[in-house]
Structure formats: C-alpha cells, structure tokens
Design goal:
Elements lengths: L3 E4 L2 E4 L4 E7 L3 H5 L3 E6 L6 E6 L5 E3 L7 E6 L4 E6 L8 E6 L8 E6 L1
Parallel strand pairs: 2-10
Antiparallel strand pairs: 1-3, 3-8, 4-5, 4-9, 5-6, 7-8, 9-10
Length: 113
C-alpha cells in the first residue's frame, strides 16, 4: 500500500501564495509511472480535480486555477507539488493528493479576504 502525505497548507491572505507537497512512500520506479493529481474538497460538496500531471509531465488544470496554480513532480524525490499563487477566497478547502489509486489525508488551505 502506498502512503501519500500532504503538507504545506495553512492560512493565507487573498493574493498570497502557498506551496503544497505530497510525499509518496513508494519506489521511484512506481512513482514515475503514475499520473498524479491534486483535488480540493469543500464541506458539503464533492471532491473536485484542481490539477493533474501525467507520467510524461503533461499538465491539466481546472479553469478556476489556470494561470495561478502550477503542478509539478520530482520523480527523484517521489514528491508532487502544487504551487498556488494569487489566492482567491474560493481556493479555500481541503487539498488531497492522489496517485490514481490512493489518497493522502489532506491538508487544509484557508484563504482570508
């Protein structure tokens, strides 16, 4: 079983930045062959995809974060990142890392206006 551990969440002002990290407890070979994604969940709503990156490094973003968020991966460190800039109040939620099978425990991001 793979463990995914997110970190980097917190309280940030609107317009500010945060960087999330997701460390995977798996081999480098297995990490690099999985597409990875960041999801966000708001109370009472379904978890939604924020950003994804495949094995080749091709990325995809939700319309609401395009131009503000950047997903990246460091296969040598088995780590996934999400750089979040120009935060908006609507970015508030619990952010989860996913490797197409497993979920992390989530990290809270709260944007204050």
């Amino acid at each position: 079983q793979v463990q995914l551990v997110e970190s980097g969440g917190g309280l940030v002002q609107a317009g500010g930045s945060l960087r999330l990290s997701c460390a995977a407890s798996t081999s480098r070979i297995l990490f690099r062959v999985h597409a990875m994604g960041w999801y966000r969940q708001i109370p009472g709503k379904q978890r939604e995809l924020v950003a994804a990156i495949n094995q080749r490094g091709t990325t995809d973003y939700a319309d609401s974060v395009k131009g503000r968020f950047t997903i990246s991966r460091d296969n040598a460190k088995n780590t996934l990142y999400l750089q979040m800039n120009r935060h908006e109040a609507e970015d508030t939620g619990v952010y989860y890392c996913n490797d197409s099978t497993y979920w992390g425990q989530g990290t809270q991001v709260t944007v204050s206006s």
